[in-house]
Amino acid sequence: MNSQLLRNYASILLLLAGISIGSLCGYLFGAKVDQIKFIGDIFINLLFTAIIPLVFFTIASSIAQLQKTERLGKLFLVVSAVFLMTVVLSAALMIVVMWLFPIAEDNALREMARQALSDSPTPAHSNGGSSLTNILTTNDFFELMARKNMLALIIFSLLTGFATLRAGEKARAFADFLHAGNEVMKQFLELIMRLAPLGLGAYFAYQVGVFGPQLLGVYMHPLALYYAACVFYFLVFFSVYAALAGGTLGLQIFWKNNLTPSLTAIGTCSSIATIPANLIAAEKIGIPAYVRNIVIPLGAPLHKDGSSMSSIIKLALLFAMFGKDFSAPHILLAIIGITIIVSIVEGGIPNGGYIGEVFAITAFGFPMEQALPVAMIIGTLVDPIATLLNANGDLVSSMLVTRIMQGKNWLRQFQIRVC
To answer: What sign does the CA torsion over 288, 388, 317, 16 have?
Structure first.
């Protein structure tokens, strides 16, 4: 059991070791560590080369496979509504936390932002209509291959997926190609991420060497806020959801059967790996097979309360880093919208938040070279508790879906049948 746990956490432990060693080198040798910055640059550039095909295959293949659920009618609509509700509520909670305990724009953050902007100057602004056109579309196919046109690529990927879905059996070979491409890019990303301890270690050494050890405090504040908010959401909000689904009995039976899925989620850091434990727990709770066999497998890649909250904390840090107003009403609406999309496009696998991070950074126009490593570090460090909320959210959501589909007495009727 201990060896399995170590294997599941190996990537996180190695990354923490790399960051720690890099930070120590930066602290001891100061600006001299600039000589190893190229190692971090190589790692980041490898990630950049994977962005375009990874985003295209992930989104297009996901849409192309929706035909498996399109016949579910009312159930699919209810599942979508419940997923959307919990994702928005989790994001709203994290936004409130950021209002109450905002991330200060200290000297380390300002210096990081100045360095980023000097490396990647902001292009001149055009008029509103032209700017929107350039963000959402390109005037030639090859321009979709540029990172600066990420939103246009995402729209193209979505349309490709829906076109494949509409074509049906005639496009079966193309759908298989999209699925195969998605699997290849997952493996490609996994190979690159094996270099993460070395690459991000070198990046962190450079950051600490140039900006000073106070940089570490930049990460500690948001991490502490995130973990505290997640624990609150896990204990309070999940209890409320269970009570809404089945009253006092629902609350009791949810927590009675929640231990194994929770430990599995923490131990594996994977929503996909938690599916079997969730299905067993759902059966013990009394959730009908037609509900649990849809909600839980579908929720693993698409429903992510923890990722929703981590998206908010990453954006709050980046907004503070680049001196942007996080509290403006139109910004908050955009942030919630981006968070919903990020929760959908992320895969239910370890390091799957990479796609969502790229999308969020692109949507708000942050310099990719500086913003992506920051988001990746935060994302990796919050992964265990984020997975806990992601996976457990599927179990309690299946209770809410059952409540809507079968009425308020569904749980008592199950208890009577069992007895």
So the answer is: negative
